[in-house]
Every structure is written in structure tokens, then in C-alpha cells.
């Protein structure tokens, strides 16, 4: 089979800037739920670390300081010396709540020291962490990932069938994608191939070559029928480059998800542009060399990346309501009078504002499968919504009316409540039971602003 050409069928951030709800210079009280916050949650968690997960280090957690965005002056920080841990029953409730939020039945049971985190996944996580996560979308240039909120990486599964492809320039790759939930919709899929540097003499003689990838749609039967292939993508690359080769294989993955029993894998072929001769040996890494250590090969092996959407998009009404309605309504003079009266209130009457709340995954016992982050700042809203509502309390017209009625007749309606008015998502890099590396964006996980509603 290696001597014949394949029969082709045509196939035409987390941000640290905070919306606050008071102008007082007194620091908001810190409430430490799971443990102290990291020294810098936004720090890149992959700097100066080995790519082997067993030696992988995420940012350490400072034992004393919780970095909280302060009130309007941003002038003070509070040191908390005692680490308060919740009791076991509370931890169970917390774990169950988080599992439901993450759409899991139980935490994965894995030995993460034997799993490699792909460099491409680390880079994508770092890219997301460098921007505000105001939606679930995961950016990926060149791919249709507009609404994808989950990325998974898969490694090649060895099989006896691979022995039928003895040449390094033409090889079968098989990826088990059954761990992708049926309810998720595939938005994109790419095959990434690593390249090794060539000697100067090799690079001069053959300057460019082609990498072709086929979907094996039917296996062959020796002496009876030839296998069938469907060309998916092709790339022309230079021999003097070591950049990763990315190939679009979404049609194949779509077919595998629809009919798992017909997943026969991909056929990758590497050949020169001048002729049908193979390209230099071992430039494109399709299989492990005989003298290559297993750990070294794990960093160079082919990888399949899938981009999916789980459909769990929440309403953006909380974010939009502040932009639509802004303050409490009324004229500017009324707002100023309310602000002046608010300034004359007693100091102990703390109005609605954002407070510190840090979720530490280690305290929940999840640090063995959550790679990054080690935890996150969730924050929460608490405080009074007194009459009259001040302009800085980010109130809706409805909240203004409700507060007015409550002031006239407290028994008729309750006061307006201090609630989140702006939320952001977080990005998580973790491992599942199938030893698959998953990068997922979760929407509305951290409070940015509070107001009376």
C-alpha cells in the first residue's frame, strides 16, 4: 500500500480593573472562604516550567495577602494572616455545587504525572488569560471557532494496523474522540504536526514540500479491495523551517462523531514539490524513532485539537442592564442631592459594594486534575441599598421605585438588593477521566461590579 498513491475522492482575562460601588476610602472587608489568594492570579502559569505535567508548576499561593481591587481610591490593601478553611460538610457542598457548574458527575481520578500538557494548549491558555473573558468564545486565528468554548487535545493511539505503513513519510494516525459529549457541537478540528530541524545540505537540496492529510473512509482487504481515502487538506512548507504544521480535519472528526465505528484514522503523506519522492527523513514527526526516548517523543508527537460548543451560554442580561439603564434615572440635581445626603450618613452604614471571595481548588481537593488556575477570585456583593439610592449604586429605575415605596411603606415591599451587575468568565485548563487535556471557558464566574436592583 505504501508504494501506491492514495485514491482521492473530490472534496471540493482576567482583568484586575474593578467597578466599585462606593467612594469611601475605607477598605472593603475581606472574606476568605477557601484560602488566601495567589500573589498574582493573572501571572502566566507556564513560565520557566518543564512541559511534563508531573513537574508542572502553577503559581504559588501567597500565605498572607489577598490582592483585592479596592474602593474608589484603590489605596489600601489588607493582610490576612490566618487561613480559614471550611469544615468537611461545607467542602462536600462546595464540591457538589462546582461539579454541577462544570457539568461533571464526579472529579476525574487520574495520575497527572504521566500526562503531557501540549505546548499549544499552554499558549492558548496564556493568550486567553491576557484578555478579558467577556464571552465564552475561544479565539483561534484561521479556524471557525466563533462560538467554541471548549478545546480538547488528543494523542495518536497505537495499533497493529500502523505496521502496514512502514515509511516515515506516509503514516496512519488514529485518535479516539469518543470522550467528546454528544450534545456538544464541533466548530473546528485541526491536526498539528511537529517538525525537526534539518542539516544545511538537506535544506538546500529540497527547499519546499507538501504535507497531505486524508480521511480513511474504508479499510482495505488484502487481495480483495483497496482502501479509500478522502483528501482533507494540504500545506506547502519549507524545509528550513521548524514551525508546526496545522491541517484542517473537521470533516473527518464530524464523521467519526456521527459514526464512531467508522473511525479508521487519518493518513498523512509528506512528499517533495519537484516529484512524488518523499521528503527528508524525520523532518515532519509522524512516528517515534527507535532511539528516541518516550519522554522526548511525547513533546513531538502529532496532536488532534477539537473546538466545540457545549451550548451552555447564559443570558447576558446582567451585563446589559447596567449599560441600558445606567443610574437610577431622574435629573442630575436629584442625583447630586442624593449623593450629598449619602455623604452625611454614618460611617457604619456600609452601602452595596464588592467583597473579596477567593476559591482555592486545592482546598476542594481538585489540584490533581485542574492544571490552571490554582484558584480564582469570585468576589460577592453585599451591603445596604438605603433610601434615597445614590448615583454610584448603579441602580435601575425599578430599584429606585421599589426603594421609594419601601421607604413610604416598609411592610409593602422589601428594599432593593445588592447584586452583581457585571460578571466575567474564567478559563480553566484541566484533565478528564480519558486523560484528555481540556481548555474550557466558563461564563459569569467572577463579579466585576455590584449595584442595587
TrEMBL record:
Q: Which UniProt keywords apply?
A: Developmental protein, Differentiation, Disulfide bond, Glycoprotein, Growth factor, Secreted, Signal
Biased composition annotated in UniProt, kind: Gly residues: 324-334
**Chief location of this protein within or outside the cell:** secreted
The source organism is: Drosophila navojoa (Fruit fly)
Q: What is this protein called?
A: Protein decapentaplegic
Q: Does the keyword Disulfide bond apply?
A: yes
Q: Which GO terms describe its cellular component?
A: extracellular space
GO BP terms in the entry: cell differentiation; positive regulation of developmental process; positive regulation of multicellular organismal process
| Annotated Basic residues bias | 335-346
